[in-house]
Amino acid sequence: MTLTSKQKKSLWIVAGVLVTLHFAPNLLLTARRAMASRQQTAAVQKPSPRRPQAAELNQAGPPPFPVDPENAQFRRLVGDWIGGGILLNRGACHMGFQLKPLPGKPGYRGYSTLSCNPSLALLGKSASRENMAKDAINAMTPTSTIMTGEAKDGEIDFHIDKTIGTPPDGCVITGFNVMPFGEQIAVEWQAGTCPGGHMILKRVTNL
Predict the structure, then answer these.
(1) How far apart are the C-alpha atoms of 194 and 7, rounded to whole Å?
(2) CA-CA-CA-CA dihedral for 119, 201, 188, 150, to nearest 10
(3) What is the pTM of this model?
(4) What is the DSSP string of 107-126?
């Protein structure tokens, strides 16, 4: 029996379909395996976002200074303070004081400014031209200090780092102490061989 060209073509088509059906499952399985392999390779090459460990989350920097009971007491005094009083040879004066913790280490920084008003009557001096001139100079000469200190034995004992301005009597502050006084603070200072002074200051602001 001789097959026509059309019949031969049909047989080739049927044979091709049978071959395709036979090998199709293996081809699909190979393709799936290749795709899965590429996905795994990409996942290995692309690192996943790193999650911080619990120890890292709980890790904190060092405290600015040791939190012992005494330092905790003086930490509450950080802020601005002001007060006034009568000082020997200066008359009616007032002081502004700022207390700040030292960054990253124990201790405190203090800033004080002392200024006085004309007060000839309080000093028991006559209103002569010379005394009036001295009184005016006294009123126009505020003096300031920059100091550092540490809390010890219920007070902060400051070392004077720098003085700004010189009082008319030449008695600059050479030592300074601060201690709690109820809701206020008591400050006391020394002025070398000259008489020192003391005041009670009230809070103005918190830092």
Answers:
(1) 131
(2) -150
(3) 0.61
(4) -EEEEEEEEE---HHHHT--
Could you tell me how many residues make up the chain? 207
Q: Residue 93 and residue 123: Cα distance in Å, rounded? A: 12
The CATH architecture assigned to 69-206 reads Beta Barrel (2.40)
Rounded to whole angstroms, how far apart are CA atoms 53 and 38? 31
Domain chopping of the chain, boundaries: 1-46, 69-206
Band (pLDDT 50/70/90 cuts) for residue 88 is: confident
Q: Tens digits of per-residue pLDDT, 129-161?
A: 666 666 666 666 789 999 999 998 899 999 999
Helices (H), strands (E): how many in the chain? 5, 8
The Cα–Cα gap between 28 and 54 comes to: 46
